[in-house]
UniProtKB/TrEMBL annotation:
It catalyses: cholesterol(in) = cholesterol(out). One of its GO terms (biological process) is cholesterol homeostasis. This is NPC1 like intracellular cholesterol transporter 1. Belongs to the patched family. Residues 591-756 form the SSD domain. Keywords: Cholesterol metabolism, Disulfide bond, Glycoprotein, Lipid metabolism, Membrane, Signal, Steroid metabolism, Sterol metabolism, Transmembrane, Transmembrane helix, Transport. One of its GO terms (molecular function) is cholesterol binding. It comes from Oryzias sinensis. It comes from the Eukaryota. It is a multi-pass membrane protein. It is found in: Endomembrane system. SUPFAM superfamilies: Multidrug efflux transporter AcrB transmembrane domain. GO terms for cellular component: endomembrane system; plasma membrane.
Length: 1250
């Protein structure tokens, strides 16, 4: 209650120039409890303004220079004590506003006017006083007043401050000065209201700011004239000579920049897709050219006599394969060779680290990662939990302070408490590893406790205290009294997470218990605009320090994460830094049985299909189970020998090799086995010919074809090892040697095994029961089986009909041209979701990540050694505050955030240089020196009393563009980096920057530095790749500009580093690299085919064209079937070339050796004889095994092994058995045009072992 005399005094006080409403100090505000700074209030004192002279005037000029009229004419309404308190209060704001001098001056201007103006009563009306006893004397303390300000002044002051940045967070300073409204909803009235609200813990008394528009006098007390001083615009020079604010803090200071060029428009011709039009034109040209060729050929052939062919073509490669060695010796020698090579498996290294698999050690991203990890340590490990409650209904809360607010079902007290209990349960894990042993503790990295660990969650707004969550208090606002609780506090903190005290009667802090703010996007997700309490998800994040894999602490972190996973159920959407690797390893182990079943199906098929089955009585005699098993063992031994050899020489293996190489070698080996065994079964032993001679003669006929395919594939894979991708290179090396070993073992061990089996069969002994013989004799007639007669009698004639051939050519030409069009639209990349099994909890996490997260991954702009940060030019080319270059490092990053859809950067970079400069600014309390005590002359933190620290680190600058000398820079930088930020000095570098600049103290140079920004939310590999590319373009532009700064080394460089760069860099070059690898594979197939067909260039060319068509059509179908192009696809495409050789080269050679008179007849013979073997050996061997893979859990296997291998096999089959025979009838070589394998070939290459 006010005494009657006071009430009368307030009502009778006149508002006239030259008079004060209050003067001097009356101690603490008795109406306030705990506050962040002492709430010193003035004494009611209606009296004339005082003439300020001497020390009083000097102090007044320092604190409120905008009111200075010279010592002779300066009057004021504030004492020295008031000036000291005002300076202390302003220093808190100046710490964040000084980077924009006009803003800092406007802010001080308003408070100086209300506190010290000689015309105080004209714009101020005291509304509440209280009786206090101060220094033993009764006083009337002013605890509330109204200030009347012209709207033009308020709006200009607000506009000068609204864009001032906080470099440490990338946000806006005004977000900490506008209460619950944050930066987005802040207005001049809300800005001033917060400053005048004593409940925020900073204002010493209540100030009701009235913003009056123009000359509107409605409601104004008599004599009151709204203050209308001159507020500075942010792009103006201050009266003291300070430079205009920088572009980052003031949009009006920004240069006029043209918008970045948009992405290139789609290629169009005649108003349609240009590639589609070209594909249509190409198909028309090829079809017309083909039809013209057919017409001309028909007219010319009708004038000629029918070709009288029939001469015998000599295949000089036969003789190479007819040598004799005893089977048991060959099997023993083969076993010894395989065993010797396989011993190397004891030293096998299995690479599971994705970085080692897909990023070459000398790649740019890998070198950048190594540089970053060397100087700053590996990126910390993230352990995250996302909680949703889609079925829980929300509610509407009518808040006393904030009005009606929507609260979603997940933002409820019971769920927040459950989250807190889960968080505490995880924090208390201490079985084999405690959280404090491995956690990231930014503000106490040397000796952290559990409360020092960086845990970001919504309960942190309540300092993880159940008592705070349950806290309630009654509060009166505008005459209305209501209860405030956790909801009011949460609304405030979500909008103002940097606050040390809310504006409710609860008076609680929003800061986390580890001392840092929890930004809204780290606590909740799935909200629209700023409707935070209506969020759809709560987010809990544990950040752990990361260590090199060889560091013992790395295992400790893994063990803690293992215990973390035991607590959480998979459906809780809880990913760890290890989760990707764990889930990939889990699904690999779970899918091993699928691969085993696949190989078993292939073995059963081979064993059954190789049998002759002439009669039921000879079923066990003519079966080929052991031969089939021997063929599988040959494949297995070749793979083991290859892996053993490379393990000997130190080339690591991978899961891709274990999964793909056996499949590839099995396809190649089974084809050769079928060709050899079926040819042996179809051939009749000649009179007087021994069994060994018979096998040798058959082998001499088919081995050159086997050599052609195996050599082509092996050389193809060896050249594929030129790839820069470690996984592709190691796969190619393993596959190349495995194919060679497979051929060598087939020519030795398998032939010996077949010889032994033929001996058993000749003696009519059962296969599995060698002691049992049957009476039925083996027929000496050739066994053509089922497939050969079918293809000879029905398939070949139907395919090679005149009209069918034209139809086939037209269809395949259209298919090829369509695939070219589709190939140009294939998506490049590999989304990490595809690496997860279909039942993985990580899939739901990725879905929630894209749905609920508001920003993406951090991106660091890293500087290398060679730049002088200590010079004024060096600082100006990096910083973004007043006096900095308009195109500095941080300013260019700021420009990029203006176009997030193109740059993929959402939040500007923090800047230790900017905050270091602000920290040194004498206008703040951050950098002071002890003037008393044993530490005299040393750095004094801001929380130490000014009585002990009376000296600033730097003197005030006339221009306010504070720049330390080289000596001061080097002296105070360590103090800045070790200074813990607090309310008195929010610019301390500990936590935010203590690892950002890496100092080489011996040479006093900064060897490395980094500036952290944030990407936009990136949802797929295409966006990650685009972000990497745009980041590198921006870093290159920054590098070029900074190299022009005097003293900069010519090799100085700025690069971007993101944790994901090493995975997505490959997609910047994978298209040209893929073309190179596939070209390197195609080249040997052409060369080897030409050589082994007696320099038959035409056959080699047709062979090459068909394989190219298979590869192109495969990529086209990849587009249709949503199979992205990536490193795994590239491995499969390289494999496709090898398998295509099997489908094509055997047919081409068979056609070249045929002695039939016409091309059509020769094609028919090749289709029937060799086509049936290829169909049975390649297609029917692969297809059953591939179909089994459809049941794998891993999406990676389903897509890139089942789908893609199915496409490759079916397209290879179609081109090899449909298109190629037709193509040969039109363009195949003429009879007698070449001798297969030139006579100059000497030296037996291989020997038949019988």
């Amino acid at each position: 209650m006010l005494a009657p005399s006071l009430t009368q005094m307030l009502s009778e006080a006149q508002h006239q120039p030259g008079f004060c409403a209050f003067y001097d100090e009356c101690g603490r505000n008795p109406s306030l409890g705990d506050t962040l700074i002492p709430p010193i209030v003035p004494c009611l004192n209606y009296s004339p303004a005082r003439h300020l002279t001497g020390e009083h005037y000097k102090r007044f000029k320092e604190v409120c220079p905008m009111l200075d009229q010279g010592e002779e004419n300066t009057y004021g309404c504030c004492s020295l004590g008031q000036l000291t308190s005002l300076e202390r209060s302003l220093s808190l704001s100046k710490g964040v506003l000084n980077r924009c001098p006009s803003c800092a001056e406007n802010f001080a201007h308003m408070h100086c006017m209300a506190t010290c103006s000689p015309n105080q009563t004209v714009a101020v009306k005291v509304t509440k006083v209280m009786n206090v006893t101060y220094l033993g004397q009764p006083k009337d303390a002013v605890v509330a007043y109204s200030a009347y300000i012209n709207n033009q002044f308020a709006e200009t002051a607000f506009q000068s401050c609204k864009n001032v940045r906080l470099p440490a967070t990338g946000g806006f300073a005004i977000s900490t000065m506008c209460g619950r409204y944050g930066a987005t909803l802040c207005t001049p009235q809300r800005w001033y209201d917060f400053q005048g609200d004593s409940s925020n813990g900073l204002a010493p008394l209540d100030i009701d700011f009235h913003l009056i528009k123009g000359h509107d006098t409605t409601g104004l007390p008599e004599g009151v004239i709204p203050y209308n001083g001159r507020a500075l615009k942010c792009n103006e020079v201050t009266p003291s000579g300070s430079e205009p604010c920088s572009c980052q803090d003031c949009k009006d200071s920004c240069p006029s920049l043209p918008p970045p060029p948009p992405p290139p428009a789609p290629f169009r011709l005649a108003g349609m897709d240009g590639f589609l039009l070209i594909s249509i034109i190409l198909s028309c040209v090829l079809i017309c050219a083909f039809l013209l060729y057919v017409f001309v050929s028909f007219r010319m052939s009708s004038k000629k006599k029918k070709d009288q062919g029939g001469g015998k073509r000599k295949d000089k490669t036969k003789d190479i394969f007819q040598r004799k060695i005893h089977p048991s010796e060959v099997l023993l020698l083969s076993a010894v060779v395989v065993a010797v090579l396989s011993v190397g498996l004891k030293s096998i290294e299995l690479t599971t680290d994705p970085v080692e698999l897909w990023s070459a050690p000398n790649s740019q991203a890998r070198q950048e990662k190594d540089f970053h990890d060397k100087h700053f340590g590996p990126f910390f490990r993230t352990n995250q939990l996302i909680l949703t409650a889609p079925d829980k209904k929300g509610s509407i809360y009518d808040s006393l302070l904030f009005g009606k607010q929507n609260f979603s079902g997940i933002v409820s007290k019971d769920l927040i408490i459950q989250l807190l209990e889960l968080q505490q349960k995880i924090q208390d894990l201490n079985r084999t590893a405690s959280l404090k042993d491995v956690c990231y503790a930014p503000l106490n990295p040397s000796n952290p406790s559990l409360t020092d660990c960086a845990v970001n969650s919504l309960p942190q707004y309540f300092q993880n205290s159940l008592e705070n969550i349950n806290a309630k208090a009654n509060m009166t606002e505008l005459g209305v009294t209501k209860e405030v609780d956790w909801r009011d506090h949460l609304i405030y903190c979500l909008n103002s997470p940097l606050s040390f005290k809310d504006i409710t009667a609860l008076g609680m802090s929003c800061m986390a218990d580890y001392g840092a703010p929890v930004f809204t996007f780290l606590a909740v997700g799935g909200y629209e605009d700023d409707d935070y309490t209506n969020a759809e998800a709560l987010i809990l994040t544990f950040s752990l320090n990361n260590f090199p894999r060889e560091d013992p602490k790395f295992k400790v972190a893994l063990q803690w994460e293992k215990e973390f996973l035991k607590i959480l159920k998979p459906e809780r959407n809880s990913p760890l830094s290890r989760s990707l690797e764990d889930e990939i390893n889990r699904t690999t182990a779970e899918d091993i049985p699928i691969f085993m079943i696949s190989y078993l199906v292939i073995f059963v098929y081979i064993a059954v299909a190789l049998g002759e089955y002439s009669s039921c009585k000879r079923l066990l005699v003519d079966s080929k189970f052991l031969v089939g098993l021997g063929g599988i063992l040959v494949v297995g031994c070749s793979v083991l020998a290859s892996m053993g050899f490379y393990s000997w020489i130190g080339i690591p293996s991978s899961l891709v090799i274990l999964q793909v190489v056996p499949f590839l070698v099995l396809a190649v080996g089974a084809d050769n086995i079928f060709i050899f065994v079926l040819e042996y079964q179809r051939d009749v032993r000649r009179a007087g010919e021994t069994r060994e001679q018979h096998i040798g003669r058959v082998l001499g006929h088919v081995a050159p074809s086997m050599l052609l395919c195996s050599l082509s594939e092996s050389v193809c894979f060896f050249l594929g090892a030129l790839s820069t991708m470690p996984a592709v290179r190691s796969f190619a090396l393993y596959a190349a040697l495995a194919v060679l070993m497979d051929f060598a073992l087939q020519m030795t061990a398998f032939v010996a095994l077949l010889s032994l089996d033929a001996r058993r069969q000749d003696k009519n002994r059962c296969e599995l029961f060698c002691c049992v013989s049957v009476s039925a004799k083996h027929s000496n007639k050739p066994n053509e089986g089922f497939l050969l007669p079918l293809m000879r009698k029905y398939y070949a004639p139907a395919l090679l009909n005149r009209y069918t051939r034209i139809f086939v050519m037209v269809v395949f030409i259209l298919m090829f041209c369509a695939s070219i069009f589709l190939m140009l639209h294939v998506k490049v990349g590999l989304d990490q979701e595809l690496a997860m099994p279909t039942d993985s909890y990580m899939l739901r996490y990725f879905s929630y990540l894209h749905k609920y997260f508001e920003v993406g991954v951090p991106v660091y702009f890293v500087t290398k050694r060679g730049y002088n940060f200590t010079s004024e030019e060096g600082m100006n080319a990096v910083c973004s505050s007043v006096g900095c270059d308009q195109f500095s490092l941080t300013q260019k990053i700021q420009y990029a955030t203006n176009f997030p859809d193109l740059s993929h950067i959402a939040i500007p970079a923090n800047s230790w240089v900017d905050d270091f400069i602000d920290w040194l600014n004498p206008g703040s309390r951050c950098c002071r020196l002890y003037t008393l005590g044993p530490n005299q002359g040393e750095f004094c933190p801001a929380n130490i009393s000014s009585l002990l620290c009376g000296r600033k680190c730097m003197n005030a600058s006339a221009t306010s563009a504070i720049r330390p000398s080289v000596e001061l820079f080097n002296r105070f930088l360590p103090d800045f980096l070790g200074n813990r930020p607090d309310l008195q000095c929010s610019k301390g570098g500990l936590g935010a920057y203590d690892t950002s600049p890496v100092n080489e103290l011996t040479f006093l140079v900064i060897a490395a530095s980094r500036f952290m920004a944030y990407h936009t939310t990136l949802t797929n590999s295409q966006e990650y790749t685009a972000a990497l590319q745009k980041g590198r373009e921006l870093a290159s532009s920054i590098t070029e500009a900074m190299r022009k700064v005097p003293g900069t080394s010519p090799d100085f460089e700025v690069f971007t580093y993101t944790l994901t760069n090493v995975f997505y860099e490959q997609y910047l070059t994978i298209v040209p690299e893929g073309l190179f690898n596939i070209s390197m594979c195609l080249l040997p197939t052409f060369v080897v085919c030409c050589l082994l067909l007696g320099l038959d260039l035409l056959s080699g060319l047709l062979n090459l064209i068909t394989i190219i068509m298979i590869v192109v059509d495969t990529v086209g179908v990849m587009t249709l079937w949503s199979i992205d192009y990536n490193a795994v696809s590239l491995i499969n495409l390289v494999t496709a070339v090898g398998i295509s050789v099997e489908f094509v080269s055997h047919m081409t050679r068979s056609f070249a050796l045929s002695t039939k008179p016409t091309r059509v007849e020769r094609a028919a013979e090749a289709t029937a004889n060799m086509g049936s073997a290829v169909f049975a050996g390649v297609a029917m061997t692969n297809l059953p095994g591939i179909l089994v893979l459809a049941f794998a859990k891993a999406q990676l296997i389903q897509i890139f092994f089942f789908r893609l291998n199915l496409v490759i096999t079916l397209l290879g089959l179609a081109h090899g058995l449909i298109f190629l025979p037709v193509l040969l009838t039109y363009f195949g070589t003429d009879l007698y045009s070449h001798s297969v394998f030139p006579a100059s070939s000497v030296a037996p290459l291989l020997c038949v072992c019988i």
